[in-house]
Amino acid sequence: MRYFLRRLIQAAFLLTGVSILTFLFSTLAPGNYFDEMRLNPQISPETVAALRAQYQLDQPLPLRYGRWVNSVLHGEMGFSFAYNSPVRPLLWTRARNTLLLTLSATLIAWALALPLGVLSAATRGRLPDRSLSWATAAALVIPDLVFALALLILAVRSGWFPTGGIVSVGFESLSPIQKFLDLASHMALPVLALVFSALPALLRHVRAAVREVLDAPFLRAAASHGIPRRILLYRYALRAAANPLISLFGFSIGALLSGSLLVEVVMSWPGLGPLLLESILARDLYVVIGGVLFSTIFLVAGNFLADIFIYWADPRIRTGKAAR
Amino acid sequence: MQPLLIVENLEKRYEGARRLGAKNKAPALRGVSFSISPQSTFALVGESGSGKSTLAYCIAGLERATSGNIKLDGNEITELDPKRLRVLRPQIQLVFQDPARSLNPRFSAVETVSEPLLVQGRMGKQEREDRARAVLSQVGIPQEKIPLRAEEFSGGQRQRLAIARALVLEPKLLILDEALSALDCSVQAQIANLLLELQSSLGLTYLFITHDLAMAGHLADEIAVMESGKIVEMGAAEKVLREPEQETTRRLIAATPRLDIAAGQPQGL
Questions:
Q1: Distance between CA atoms of A36 and A49, rounded to whole angstroms?
Q2: Nearest Cα to A8, choosing from A297, A304, A320?
Q3: Contact (CB<8Å) A321/B96
């Protein structure tokens, strides 16, 4: 329990630190949302000044940070200048779409990386390992953007998949199964692009972690007791290699919100990515800060989840002796 | 008496990296032949890289020999399929050099020792635990330490745990792969005495792999000296130590430190 309490306190400090830094950097960056209005001769300088005052941009930085923290505690996370609405509901609607995409992609990528990584480690230097090594190297050097564009071209040319949005027009009138299929067909391309971008690195991590433990004498001893190869690999080697992989899993959850930015923009997925990009370009300050805070919360939650998994998976952590 | 283990013309080549389309095979064992009588200790000595551990892994079925024969109790084991090898495996057990790495860090002592029984599908849970406790007591692990995990034991006790894990399947042949090398001198002596006691009480046969000729002389009935994957000298332990015929053996004997108290200097054996 003390272990989790310590982690929670660390998480609170991290969130506070990130919020201060993000607030500081975003505020100190040159220009703000109302600067472009000054170029418009139809808007008087007094009106711009009144708007700045209305949104408290003329207040000192610590006071603005204090008001923003108060707004976070009341569940609003500031106010969007562009959308004229509180930031949290705005971000949350988009974040849900992003999560749908990235959670599916992460689960698929891990579901493929684990067996393929174990296969690669178990066949070191032989054909399956060499093929996977070449394939991952090729996938790593192809930029995600190029692959996403290639998928998009394929979708446009073939007409097999929809090329943007999350659901079709008339989605509400479909039966539950048709709704599921419609959503799945919209998700297929962006999920494929995300899996393609995440899988090679995950596969190589799994391979390296399992490879390292496969030579451990305790696994050789287990083999000499007559354990079938498959059980040796999945129940013994993978479990022994699990700690760094669980940490990586936590980290990949942390990267869920920010990782799909590029793919969402290219594939026109109405997630957090396009919103954040628009907000950064428009200098919609509190949306940008809210987006970063959302990402940090995910990072913290992912690491916390990883800590729970490691605690559950490794008896040495439970008695605080893993570091020996 | 019929030998327990017969090794004939054993060859092992590891496949190296492909270079210009040709397979580069490095010979690790070259025509190794020897036999071990039941309830005796056969020591394999040699420098690092001489092929001792490869030989041990081939005999234990962890590596497949390129050619040659290994017979245990009259049964040829080199050509067995995985299923039949699995049945035979409990008869040959290994104790490794590094007790810290040879035990699963997640297992308690009793789990470590009962695990081979679980793998072999022998006994119910309670029976397995009782058997594990009995073997742990046999190798001198105190009852109160049984719930602890391997990392909470000292080096010598970990090696006792590893020996208990090997013994629980009641093997005929125990391969001790540098099993004393990582221990300090006093613990080495304790484990060596434990091995001798277990041999006389359980009728075990040992294949003792070491680079320490002094310890080989203490434990073994026969010694074989390996160099570059070949046995270059073999015979009764006393004869090999007292009248070495090969330069390799003489070099190993000369490299073995001996504390000569009268002279106050460590000298050759």
A1: 13
A2: A304
A3: no
By percentage, how much of chain B surpasses pLDDT 90?
A: 37
d(Cα B239, Cα B226) in Å, to the nearest integer?
Answer: 16
Give the tokens for residue B139.
């190798």
Q: Do A316 and B97 touch (CB under 8 A)?
A: no
Is residue A156 a contact partner of residue A164, using CB atoms and an 8 Å limit?
A: no
pLDDT at A323: 41
**Residues near A48 by Cβ (< 8 Å), separated by ≥ 6?**
A34, A37, A38
* AA letter at B110: V
DSSP string, A156-177: HHH-SS--SSSS-TTGGGS-HH
Distances in whole angstroms, Cα of residue B198 to Cα of each of A177, A213, B189, B194, B205: 68, 31, 14, 6, 10
Q: Is A283 left (phi over 0), alpha (psi -120 to 50) or beta?
A: left
Nearest CA in chain B to A213: B101
Burial label for A212, CB within 10 Å (0-12, 13-18, 19+), is middle
Q: How many CA atoms lie within 13 A of A323 on its CB side?
A: 1
pLDDT tens digits along A28-53? 777 777 777 777 777 777 777 777 77
Is the pLDDT assigned to residue B269 strictly greater than 60? no
Please name the residue that has the structure tokens 């009852």: B143
Q: Do A225 and B98 touch (CB under 8 A)?
A: no
pLDDT digits 0-9 by tens, A180-227: 888 888 888 889 988 988 899 999 999 999 998 888 888 888 888 888
CB-CB under 8 Å, B151 with A316:
yes
Report the C-alpha gap between B244 and B250 in whole angstroms.
6
Q: Is A32 left (phi over 0), alpha (psi -120 to 50) or beta?
A: beta
Task: Please tell me which of the candidates B101, B120, B152 has its beta carbon nearest to residue A217.
Answer: B101
pLDDT at position B59: 92
Contact B138, B157 (CB under 8 A): no
B20 φψ region: left (φ > 0), alpha (ψ -120 to 50), beta (else) = left
- Within B61-204, strands assigned E span 67-72, 75-76, 92-95, 173-177
ipTM of predicted assembly, 2 dp: 0.76
Which domains, from first to last, does chain B contain?
Answer: 5-101+172-267 (3.40.50.300)
Domains of chain A: 96-281 (1.10.3720.10)
Q: Cα–Cα distance between A294 and A288 in angstroms, integer?
A: 10
Kindly state the DSSP code that residue A324 receives in the 8-state scheme: -
Residue to substitute from B91, B102, B175, B176, interface A, most A β-carbons within 10 A: B102
Angle at B160 between CA B173 and CA B114, to 5 degrees: 75
Residues ≥6 apart with Cβ < 8 Å to A88: A75, A76, A77, A290
Q: Identify the burial level of B32 via C-beta atoms within 10 angstroms of its C-beta, where 0-12 means exposed, 13-18 middle and 19 or more buried.
A: buried
pTM: 0.74
For residue B19, pLDDT beyond 60: no
- Residue located via tokens 């707004």: A71
Over residues B37-70, the pLDDT tens digits come to 999 999 999 888 889 989 999 998 888 889 999 9
The helix/strand/coil state of B217 is: helix
